[in-house]
Amino acid sequence: MLKITDDAKAGVNGQGEAAETGDLLRPTPRLNHDLAQRAGDFATLPEALDYAARGVTGFNFYSPRGRLEHVVSYAVLRDRAIATARRLLSLGLKRGDRVAVVAETAPEFMEVFFGCQYAGLIPCPMPYTMYIGGRDAYVDRVAGMLRAASASVAISPVELRDFVAEAAAKCGTEVVLTHAELASLPGFEGELEPFRPHEEAYIQYSSGSTSDPKGVLISQAAITANGRATLVHGMRIRPDDRAFSWLPLYHDMGLVGFCLTPMLGQVTVDYLATPSFARRPALWLQLMSENRSTIAFSPSFGYDLAARRVNGQAAELDLSSWRIAGIGGDMVRPDVLRAFAEKMAVAGFSDHAFMPCYGMAETTLAIAISDTTGPIRVDTIDTAAYENERVARPVTSGEGVAQSRSFVACGRPLPGYDVVIRDDAGNILGERAIGHICVRGESLMTGYFRNSVATGAAFDAEGWLSTGDMGYWLDGELVITGRSKDLILHNGRNIWPQDIEWTVEQLEGLRTDDAAAFSVEGDAGEEIVVLVQCRLHDAEAQEELRRRVEGALRQTIGAECNVVLVPPRSLPFTSSGKLSRAGAKRMYLSGELADVARPNHADDLVEQAVAAE
Is residue 78 part of a domain? Predict the structure, then answer.
């Protein structure tokens, strides 16, 4: 049963509330002077928030122009979460019912998420931003999540209410509320029963198709174990650390990495909404400079975007406090990190801060994290051995190897994880042999919610989770080479699509995430298709770009590819910002993505797709 202590009440009415109601809005402090830091040694999220509420740290939310808009100490968050829990239970919800909530970067989402923890309800974060395809695509995706979760309630910001209501109508979710409507409900008068250690914590919808998404069910034991390992052994958290995040809260890196884990360590976090970062990437660095932030993570594309947009402002920044610059969520690009470090050196940024890591929603988040005692470790290997033998044979300078490929080591597995790499037959592989990465440990998901088929396919009889990723061991560190389902088999070779994409993106006039590569069945066997976003309007210039791409691929990949020029911003991405090759392939085959220089090609593709059916 929940008992609100006098200490917690004092915290709610103390600095946290004053900071938000005073004449001058001030962010929460970075340090709890009167509360000892505990690095995740809690049994549940409610227990952790109860403790964090005894201090003065918390969450701060910035506007698209960099103005501090909301200050929510952990004390205030706990108070509001408990009030929200009572309002949710006034709807007649039963323990374990699912509450879907749009995960906007705002205090209201946090209040509902943690309110569910105190009420014994399972929160299901849903995406805030529109997917490519607009309203219909967004409604279909949300409807798929509501249906898969059998959600009793859906909660939305007012600007998305109509979309969420339309999605709810498709799948039988009867109650749709805005945050204001939820706040107007009366409070449940009975005893609250927060989740216990053996119970669930939340459902993360991060994979699967729009019509049948897979919900990753995470327990209280899993989230606290992963948070503890990350804080103690990964980040080596300090009492005066201050984090910054623009990552979406419906994705595991944003939710777990920069909401739940910091709370488990009583760390203050400053937030900028993802769309605000996309519009003004340099604002991320400016706010980190002003707040003397010490921890921030991003996929490679975030570093690339920020470096290109900061222009001459780098010299005006002070990033010398940034001790952990994490990279995760996609393949680590050493060239991108090198360019970022060179650009930001004038601001005091050290390339030793880069912390490549590896994780996934199915393991709560982190599996392996590298250290920051030196520069990132880049392993350059022979492409031929890598493609034909699945061996990461090292290449040293002056060897005269025709082609080579560089990968970044992502660190050693965290305590609590067993990791093996297997070949296609399931045999365990040794050093530098490329295979399938399998994981076992205390912070794995309970399973895919109400999807025994998908759960059974993910786990073997001994509890090993197949991650779907491939990689190899390098002196005890994990090196990730790509997703096994994306691997292209062409004329007996194993070709990784990112190798093709990175080759294309190095060409003048093209950018990171401008290319998508995959294979399709053609008349003469498997054909490699490369979609390239084209910003050129002149027909001759378009064909020149196509020739340059084809030439670069012949030289570096040694394969003929069908290069298709598509409109800017047309390639699909996942909720975490990763390129969706499966989505790009589907759009290509349906004719939705057509060659801008060959408009009649779309009709041919549609006919091919129909014939294939």
Answer: yes
Within a 13 Å sphere around the CA of 298, how many CA atoms are in the beta-carbon half? 26
Of 381, 382, 361, 379, nearest to 370 by C-alpha is 379
Q: How far apart are CA 563 and CA 553, in angstroms?
A: 10
CATH assignment of the domain containing 110:
3.40.50.12780
CA distance 143 to 212: 10
Instruction: List the alpha helices (DSSP H) in 43-192.
Output: 45-52, 74-89, 107-119, 135-149, 161-171, 179-183
If DSSP codes are grouped into helix, strand and coil, which group holds residue 246? coil
- Give the end of a domain, one of 486, 517, 543: 486
pTM of the model: 0.83
Q: Tell me, yes or no, whether 425 lies in a domain.
A: yes
- Residue 575's pLDDT is 59
Between 375 and 59, whose confidence is greater? 59
For 262, phi then psi, to 5°, come to -60, -40
Q: In the structure, what pLDDT confidence band is assigned to residue 13 with cuts at 50, 70 and 90?
A: very low
Q: How far apart are CA 378 and CA 503, in angstroms?
A: 18
Based on the domain organization, do 210 and 102 belong to the same domain? yes
pLDDT of residue 134: 74
Collapsing DSSP to helix, strand or coil, 605 comes out as helix
Question: What does the DSSP assignment read for 433-463?
Answer: B-EEEEEEETTS-SEETT-HHHHHHHB-TTS
Please provide the average confidence, as pLDDT, over all residues in the chain: 88
For 167, phi then psi, to 5°, come to: -65, -40
List Cα–Cα distances, 470 to 374, 486, 613, in angstroms: 26, 10, 31
pLDDT in tens, 72-82: 999 999 999 99
Looking at the structure, tell me whether residues 38 and 148 fall in a common domain: yes
Instruction: Identify which has the larger pLDDT, 145 or 499.
Output: 145
CA–CA distance, 283 with 287 (Å, rounded to integer) = 6
SS3 assignment, position 392? coil
Higher pLDDT, 329 or 304: 304
CB 365 within 8 A of CB 256: yes
pLDDT at residue 90 in the model: 97
Give bridge partners of residue 220 from the DSSP assignment: none
Phi, psi of 470 (to 5 degrees): -120, 155
Give a yes or no: residue 434 inside a domain. yes
pLDDT at position 555 is 82
Residue where one domain finishes, among candidates 252, 279, 306: 279
Q: How far apart are CA 544 and CA 122, in angstroms?
A: 54
pLDDT recorded at residue 493: 74
What range does the domain containing 395 cover?
Answer: 280-486
Is the dihedral angle over the CA atoms 78, 84, 88, 89 positive or is it negative? Answer: positive
Mean pLDDT is highest, among 155-169, 504-518, 589-603, for 155-169
- pLDDT value at residue 601: 45
Residue 253 covered by a domain: yes
Cα–Cα nearest to 308, from 343, 284, 347, 356:
343
Residue 164, phi then psi, degrees to nearest 5 = -65, -40
Residue 9 banded pLDDT, cuts 50, 70, 90:
very low
